[in-house]
Amino acid sequence: MLPKYHLFIGFIASILIYFLFNITLLQTAIVFLSSILIDTDHYLLYIYKKKDFSLTNSIKYSKERRKRWLLMKPEKRKYHKRAIFIFHGIEFWLLLVIISIYFNLIWFVLLGILIHIFLDYLDIIYINDSLYTKFSQLYVYYTNKRKKDFL
Questions:
Q1: Mean pLDDT across 62-91
Q2: Is residue 140 a part of any domain in this protein?
Q3: Which domain holds residue 33?
Q4: How confident is the model at residue 29 (pLDDT cuts 50, 70, 90)?
Q5: Is residue 53 part of a domain?
Q6: Which of 34, 127, 131, 132 would staple 112 via disulfide (CB 3.0–4.6 Å)?
Q7: CA torsion sign, 151 to 125 to 32 to 91?
Q8: Contacts of range 89-93, beta carbons closer than 8 Å, 24 or more positions apart
Q9: Does some domain include residue 149?
Q10: 102: which DSSP letter?
Q11: Which ranges constitute the DSSP H helices of the chain?
């Protein structure tokens, strides 16, 4: 899903949570920011692959890559490697659950991530793609071994 939708819906969801559950402004800010900043892994992957720190170039690259991906027929996509987004998998979420035992504010990070991932799942269903890509990054890594790169 495009960042502008995550920004808008994350903001609306955070405000609703603020009023419905009477949480503090700090907790609301954490929910909102984590619903957006989870996509930092896209930027980190760009830096790793391209050795370029330009956020503008990263955004252009991601938009172009998504455009090319969507032009490909869904049955052809399964033959190409998927990107590994370290914050988008259950492995990272479980780590946060463990940390939240000691730091209660982490629950609000998880809530923001839940909002983000829900929107990503809606987008994946809409574009007729595989849900596993946003569930387990270890599974993505494992299944990538027999596939060709998507440039």
A1: 92
A2: yes
A3: 3-72+84-144
A4: very high
A5: yes
A6: 34
A7: negative
A8: 89/134, 89/135, 89/136, 89/137, 89/138, 89/140, 90/135, 90/136, 91/136, 91/137, 91/138, 92/137
A9: no
A10: T
A11: 3-21, 25-37, 40-50, 55-71, 74-77, 90-100, 106-126, 137-144
Residue 78 domain-assigned?
A: no
Q: What tens digit of pLDDT does each residue of 82-133 get?
A: 999 999 999 999 999 999 999 999 999 999 999 999 999 999 999 888 888 8
Indicate the average pLDDT of the chain.
94
Query: How far is the C-alpha of 89 from the C-alpha of 73, rounded, in Å?
Result: 25
Joined together, the tokens standing for residue 77 give 């996509």
3-class DSSP state of 27? helix
Query: How many domains does the chain fold into?
Result: 1
Query: What share of the chain in percent tops pLDDT 70?
Result: 99
Can you give the pTM of this predicted structure?
0.90
Give, rounded to a whole angstrom, the gap between the first and last alpha carbons of the chain: 19
pLDDT at 53: 97
